């Protein structure tokens, strides 16, 4: 938690999201496990931060191919193989793939396997469709094989990752032939329950594919805790499936992911499968959102409006706040239930695709399951509760005009903790709420939502809701309502994002081109008009104008031998005058630092009227630079293109060649879209590059 003498620092701009990453996660019960990233002995790693080294892997669409019966129910009793699946032994992996093949109607064999050097211990294997390859003249009985070996590419590649634990790290599902269940049933692989059919180790290890570098993330589902505090694993066997029967079902979701990956190179999604293969939870995030998180990772709101209001669509969203103070989408999910295990999975999936870097402040509704998950996945983040949700819960207990007025005064009217707690106690006694469990529970968690406790927590304007308008803005409110189906939501999703992106671009243009109208002659107002975006300047302008209602700057304390002093600034609010204490410090290294008891800078991201008046009283003609946050500046060029890792490129890894070149090219494209002249320069540069590369290769 930030101390009273700390100045907020904006997020590190050097950290950025990963490349396209799609994973299927098999969860196992653990009481307390951290995110584990399994390395790959066959693939080079550059950099020493595991989350930043994640790379592309095959999309989940391939893992759930369209079934011939056209069923749209999410029933995966025999799920197809997926990159990242793990098995306790090689025999288990072989048996699984053999069973899958038998159900589908084809036979399998071991194409190759390899052992550890100077050892007979098996380290990896490739299991393929029996129709793989072609007949050769050297093969005995080649006539008999003429009709079976027709070059089918379907296969899985297995690798030993731990002692007796095997992982699928490559999958090809497409067959070039029709299935023959009767013939497959009589094949050698299906006549035995399990066997390796190895025929000896392979002479060489197959090369990893050039178009994909696999990094599989294992997410552990925490052990459930029952009402008596005892642990239980029953939830692993009785976990709910995600209900997608309405509005097109799983096929609509599958098509959405497929189309998104075609048009969005760094699109990320993940599916949580149960032990029975059923779909439990889904998460996805756009590439632009992953890049935007590098600019706005300081405050993230976890929006569960659909769950709290019993919408038919079990939608949740990760929401950030951009440089115009507008909400931006940083990820979406569909959940089967509201258990701690579900939220742990969801938070870990989200954390994975944002470089493993949690937000500075994470705001959620008041929910014990969410609180448990946050403490496990984001232990260092400042977990705060949505004030709007808390106020709605309180008003739901007693909704009367007199109670609303009293609650508003208690929540917003006190600057000191002692005053707030005394006023709260008097309020609940007055309205007979002493024994109400909801009120009691919220008061126990008061340090996570009451403004008087949050003055050291940066919130970027996320705590500006008043009781008269307690409902927090729902990011999808423009087209998602209580009866919106999955199909309707996905059909409007792209249009929703386009409108958000267009609105941000228009705000950028207006901020950079327009000259704000000044309301005072104060130098702070003209200074901020040049650097802040229009909306944020308008908010700060209100503080500058409000300095006229403040007066009587009086020094009340000065530390001997220290450059720290305390002042009281008086502000008139109607007929009432309130005192606000402001601490003023000077330091050779940090310069001027100010802290107001109102907590305005932490709440809003810009200084309050009381500090502005004191700075002016001290003779400062400009607001110190440390109080002009980069997240609000209009002169910062925010290119929403993912920039991964440290920039190191493994010269032996074609995957990293591609990612590096694509990254740099897209940055040129973004710059080229700024104007007609920029576009011309970018086009000429591209033509020159193509000519030089062509000459080099000829």
What's the topology here?
Elements: E1 22-25, E2 29-30, E3 36-38, E4 86-87, H1 90-104, E5 108-115, E6 122-129, H2 142-145, E7 155-162, E8 165-172, H3 181-185, H4 188-191, E9 216-218, E10 221-222, E11 224-225, E12 231-232, H5 235-238, H6 249-263, E13 268-273, E14 279-285, H7 287-292, E15 299-303, H8 305-308, E16 315-321, E17 327-334, H9 340-353, E18 361-364, H10 368-377, E19 382-385, H11 387-397, H12 401-412, H13 417-430, H14 437-444, H15 486-513, H16 523-529, H17 534-546, E20 550-558, E21 564-573, E22 576-587, E23 591-596, H18 600-604, H19 609-617, H20 654-672, H21 676-697
Parallel strand pairs: 1-13, 2-10, 15-18, 18-19
Antiparallel strand pairs: 3-9, 4-8, 5-6, 6-7, 7-8, 11-12, 13-14, 14-17, 15-16, 16-17, 20-21, 21-22, 22-23
Helix pairs in contact: 9-10, 12-13, 16-17, 20-21
């Amino acid at each position: 938690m930030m101390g009273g003498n700390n100045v907020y620092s904006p997020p590190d701009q050097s950290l950025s999201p990963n490349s396209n990453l799609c994973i299927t996660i098999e969860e196992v019960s653990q009481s307390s496990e951290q995110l584990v990233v399994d390395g790959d002995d066959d693939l080079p790693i550059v950099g020493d931060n595991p989350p930043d080294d994640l790379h592309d892997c095959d999309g989940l669409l391939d893992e759930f191919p369209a079934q011939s019966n056209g069923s749209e129910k999410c029933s995966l009793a025999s799920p197809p193989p997926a990159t990242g699946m793990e098995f306790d032994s090689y025999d288990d992996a072989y048996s699984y793939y053999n069973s899958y093949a038998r159900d589908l109607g084809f036979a399998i064999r071991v194409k190759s396997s390899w052992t550890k050097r100077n050892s007979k211990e098996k380290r990896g294997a490739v299991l393929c469709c029996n129709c793989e390859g072609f007949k050769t003249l050297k093969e005995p009985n080649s006539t008999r094989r003429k009709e079976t070996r027709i070059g089918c590419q379907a296969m899985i590649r297995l690798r030993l990752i731990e002692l007796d634990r095997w992982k699928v790290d490559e999958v090809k599902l497409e067959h070039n032939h029709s299935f023959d269940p009767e013939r497959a049933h009589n094949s050698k692989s299906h006549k035995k329950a399990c066997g390796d059919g190895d025929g000896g180790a392979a002479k060489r290890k197959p090369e990893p594919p050039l178009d994909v570098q696999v990094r599989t993330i294992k997410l552990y589902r925490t052990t459930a805790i029952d009402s008596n505090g005892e642990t239980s694993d029953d939830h692993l066997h009785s976990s709910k499936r995600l209900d997608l029967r309405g509005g097109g079902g799983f096929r609509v979701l599958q098509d959405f992911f497929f189309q998104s990956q075609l048009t969005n190179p760094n699109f990320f999604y993940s599916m949580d499968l149960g032990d029975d293969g059923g779909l439990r939870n889904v998460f996805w995030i756009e590439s632009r959102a992953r890049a935007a998180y590098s600019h706005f990772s300081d405050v993230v709101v976890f929006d569960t409006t659909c769950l709290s209001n019993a919408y038919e669509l079990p939608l949740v969203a990760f929401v950030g706040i951009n440089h115009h103070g507008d909400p931006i989408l940083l990820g979406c999910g569909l959940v089967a239930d509201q258990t701690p295990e579900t939220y742990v999975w969801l938070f870990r999936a989200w954390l994975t695709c944002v470089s493993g870097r949690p937000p500075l402040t994470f705001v959620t509704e008041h929910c014990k399951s969410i609180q448990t998950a946050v403490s496990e996945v984001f232990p260092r983040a400042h977990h705060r509760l949505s004030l709007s949700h808390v106020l709605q819960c309180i008003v739901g207990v007693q909704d009367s005009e007199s109670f609303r007025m009293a609650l508003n005064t208690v929540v917003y009217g006190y600057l000191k903790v002692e005053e707030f707690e005394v006023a709260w106690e008097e309020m609940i006694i007055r309205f007979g709420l002493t024994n109400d469990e909801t009120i009691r529970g919220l008061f126990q968690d008061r340090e996570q939502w009451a403004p008087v406790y949050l003055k050291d927590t940066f919130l970027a304007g996320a705590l500006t809701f008043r009781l008269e308008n307690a409902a927090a803005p729902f990011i999808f409110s423009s087209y998602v309502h209580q009866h919106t189906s999955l199909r309707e939501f996905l059909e409007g999703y792209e249009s929703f994002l386009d409108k958000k992106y267009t609105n941000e671009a228009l705000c950028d243009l207006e901020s950079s081109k327009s000259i704000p109208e000044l309301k005072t002659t104060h130098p702070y107002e003209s200074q901020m008009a040049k650097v802040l975006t229009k909306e944020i300047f308008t908010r700060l302008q209100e503080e500058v104008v409000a300095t006229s209602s403040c007066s009587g700057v009086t020094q009340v304390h000065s530390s001997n031998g220290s450059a720290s002093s305390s002042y009281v600034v008086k502000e008139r609010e109607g007929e009432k005058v309130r005192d606000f204490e402001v601490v003023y410090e000077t330091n050779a290294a940090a310069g001027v630092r100010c802290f107001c008891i109102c907590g305005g800078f932490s709440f809003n991201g810009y200084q309050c009227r009381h500090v502005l008046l004191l700075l002016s009283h001290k003779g400062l003609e400009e607001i110190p630079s440390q109080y002009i946050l980069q997240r609000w500046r209009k002169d910062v060029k925010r290119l929403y293109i993912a920039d991964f890792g440290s920039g190191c490129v493994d010269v032996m890894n074609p995957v990293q060649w591609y990612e590096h070149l694509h990254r740099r090219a897209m940055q040129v494209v973004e710059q080229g879209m700024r104007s007609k002249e920029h576009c011309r320069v970018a086009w000429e540069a591209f033509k020159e590059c193509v000519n030089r590369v062509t000459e080099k290769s000829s």
